[in-house]
Amino acid sequence: MNTRRCLPAGAPQLARSEDLERALATLRAFAPRDPQQAAFRAQMLAFCAAHPDALWRTCLEGHLTASGLIVDAAGECGLLCLHKKLGRWLQLGGHVDGDANLAAAALREGIEESGIAGLRVDPEPIDLDAHRIPARANEPEHWHLDVRFLLVAPPDSTPVLSAESLELRWFTKRELSSIPTDDSVRRLYELAGLA
Q: Total structural domains in the chain?
């Protein structure tokens, strides 16, 4: 499991910033491992160049989001949520709500949605993903430009269900084939080195 420089909530490097340049610096520093990741990175940088409000969900064409795969302390399982609106098992995360410190936003979302205190985040993203969100009554179809991080839970962590999810559960990589999820979640498990 990858546990490079994982930081706890409250670490000075995780201070909130509303300067889009900080998010752009994170994206520019990301080293794409394949053509798909390079394409996602280029799409995100171009979108942010055209949309200075990309940190806010009020940018109706799309916006940056941050998520993280929460890995148990033993490095054997990842925590997924059964998403209330999409009906699939996904990593935890969501809107950055103006925070250009994407690692901090992923950590904040992970803590809020899992109820696990003491999560730590690797401040360097491990994956990028761009996907369309279907239209709903009060918002059009739009892009989620998701920057993804590795979060590590303390030993003996017990998740607490939030209003965002129908269910929370730890899964091994092998168990992913038995649940409705997507290739991007499987990719996160590979990148986290889960067996």
A: 1
